[in-house]
Amino acid sequence: MRVCVAECSVEYSGRLDAHLPRAIRLVMVKADGSVLIHADGGSYKPLNWMAPPCTLSERAPDEDEVAGEVERVWEVRQTKTGDMLRISIHEMISESTYDLGVDPGLVKDGVEKHLQALLADSLEGVLGMGWRLVRREYPTPVGPVDLLAIDPEGIHVAIEVKRRGEIDGVEQLTRYLELLRRDPRLADIRGMFAAQEIKPQARTLAEDRGIACVVLDYDAMRGMDDPDSRLF
Amino acid sequence: MRVCVAECSVEYSGRLDAHLPRAIRLVMVKADGSVLIHADGGSYKPLNWMAPPCTLSERAPDEDEVAGEVERVWEVRQTKTGDMLRISIHEMISESTYDLGVDPGLVKDGVEKHLQALLADSLEGVLGMGWRLVRREYPTPVGPVDLLAIDPEGIHVAIEVKRRGEIDGVEQLTRYLELLRRDPRLADIRGMFAAQEIKPQARTLAEDRGIACVVLDYDAMRGMDDPDSRLF
DNA sequence: AATTCGATGTCGCTC
DNA sequence: GAGCGACGTCGAATT
């Protein structure tokens, strides 16, 4: 990785055209040729960038660029789309190269699949005694519903699990229910919307459609979970 | 901005839990306290990060951490959500601080909205005499179509404008046409797909559906445009 | 404050 | 490779 701090101006041409006026910025060139240009603020998104696969070439400034006090010009081209990033360097303030090696990568925990697995393992702990799991990823013609369960009264319940419960999740569950009810054995199936957080609009819509809402406590579920039987 | 290269391991706890095993990475601390951790690959997205507003504090490693060869520990806390990022530094390889000043920011040009405005202003210049604009952003139940126009024969034409014409743009226009044709006054409406560049697949699909394709010349349209009447 | 919508979205999976 | 959905989506414009 090459890490530079430079006074530069930048032009991008690709899905749109954009330019960055002259200022001091951090320019990061990764081993795969990709380039990131960061200012000292904003979020994790660079002001400008080029995604791999791409190639960086350096050239001398032309007459106009010299007149504009440009010392070096980097041109980064996207191999597939032809997008181009031109970095005009007015002054290189610092430049270093490091060998970072291959990163072992991020390990995630607590995503929807994990919530689904935890709830499947802790149905009685979360919903109460008498609940039984039929299966995870129960198939329907429009995709699998997260969990199919049976409540203490013996009624089937389709459970949609989300990390954040929003309206589109309720719509998704509604589609599943509509199709599942065509199966005579599931004609009386009910719906349950389970999420770590349920938005007010989603709750309103769900309850209007007779879908129960359950807020999941991830840490509590992890406590209930039997570590020997879990999937992750 | 503080730019460090360090052998580190990282834990994140917030919307999800995640961790990064020990490896050499770039750690960027911006003036607002936000932190980015980059490996030497991937795209512009960091492996891990903390968005502002947040505060970074450094502490000495505890007994377990010392046993794990940790030299320094940075803890970054999100002020509002309480999300936490813990960076355990095994070895600081390089550390520098720069004053970048306030960035003037990215200036965008040539986005779809601008193309749409230019085409609306130059309909006859681009498509030929006799074309008339009905309106921009003509509403349909699935969103507004960019332009509704009338061709020299008096037939309505729905025009979808893109910088890069790809298949999803043709699908979008097809949905608009389907709904617009339900209006008896627009039963004979035709479609036109206008873009600076039209991908072969998109052109094939469009023409198969009877949708005309027009390649827009941005510079020429800017030349035709009356600067006094334009929207930008 | 809440919501909707666009993004140079990116990323990861299925087909 | 294309299509589809989730994302620690982020961010701006709008209600």
Automatic annotation (TrEMBL), chains A, B:
Keyword Magnesium (UniProt): no
A Pfam family reported for this protein in Swiss-Prot or TrEMBL: NucS_C
CDD domains xrefs: NucS-like
GO MF entries: DNA binding; single-stranded DNA endodeoxyribonuclease activity
Described purpose of this protein according to its UniProt entry: Cleaves both 3' and 5' ssDNA extremities of branched DNA structures.
Classification via HAMAP family: NucS
Name of the protein in question: Endonuclease NucS
Organism: Nanchangia anserum
